[in-house]
Amino acid sequence: MANNFKIPGMLLGNDINQYKKYTKFIIDTDAGGDDAHAIMMASYILKHIRKDAELLGITCVSGNASLYNVIKNVYITSRYCHFDQVPAIYKGCEFDSMRTFHRDFFFKEDGFGGVQKQYLKELNVDENQQLYENKHAVDFLKESIEKYQDQLCIICIGPLTNIYTTLLQHPQIVNQLGCLFCMCGTYLGVGNQVNGIAEFNIATDVLATKIVLQADFKNKIILPFDTVLSYSLDKDVGGKIFNVQHNKIAKLVHDIYENVLFETCYYLCDELAIVMAMIPETMTQALVRGIHVIEDGFARGGMIVDWIKKMRKEDVSEVSIVTQFNWEEMIELALKTNQE
């Protein structure tokens, strides 16, 4: 399905294909069924397409589920992926920057479609077993950024609490990190929260998002939720990705999504962010604009785009906003991920 909404030509920005291919990656996640599927796709890409690249580790943050459920979900997923060995998993922030915890139970309480305990049992993993490294995610992020600098891209597919905390403790990272790629926000105001305009990752930690996106990182790219909504899978193709059980990866995807209601179509979300960050040529159009994150009131968590550059400089932060991408390639990668 092609992108149904076209931005007027005068508002479009640069071609995003200028962005380099990074060779080192960290996935920052609140897994989440769609995060789990995204990690699976990352494992396929690294094994078959980006053999020059490396996943340094996966950092976990609360969001779709509690922090310890997120860690379990990442561990289970990694065991069923194309990875030669389970990536290092790091425990991050258990609460958002305001010390609260927001989630919507879209993937059930465990964030894994209700099948987490079943899979832990199949893997002979004790629920109380430590599945993460002793080093905290913030320390791992800081050390990785200092070591790899321009080579490193951090892909954030959850709330930005880990990045916010790292930035507060180690502000020098803003001048070191190669790229911050975030699945967050809305550029047309089509959200998935109760106020109609906010997106989950921002709404879960509004302050963290605002501070992180205001920071002067060398390269900030966001994939907004309403760009995702412009593309959808029909039942036939969606069923081939989410509703087959011909191998262990396909079965895991099926089991996670089995209890998630799809009314008329299927969507890829965090999966798209992973592919775009690792294979930047899949992004075909973006605009570079100032954005403003709303911190309070009914519109809390909303994102305003400075379309015609009239907002005060101190009120906006400039980011690259992905608006179009190669949809056919995304489908092909999703299908290939669970065919082995």
From TrEMBL:
InterPro entries: Inosine/uridine_hydrolase_dom, IUN_hydrolase. It comes from the Eukaryota. GO terms for molecular function: hydrolase activity, hydrolyzing N-glycosyl compounds. Residues 26-330 form the Inosine/uridine-preferring nucleoside hydrolase domain. This is Inosine/uridine-preferring nucleoside hydrolase domain-containing protein. Pfam families: IU_nuc_hydro (PF01156).
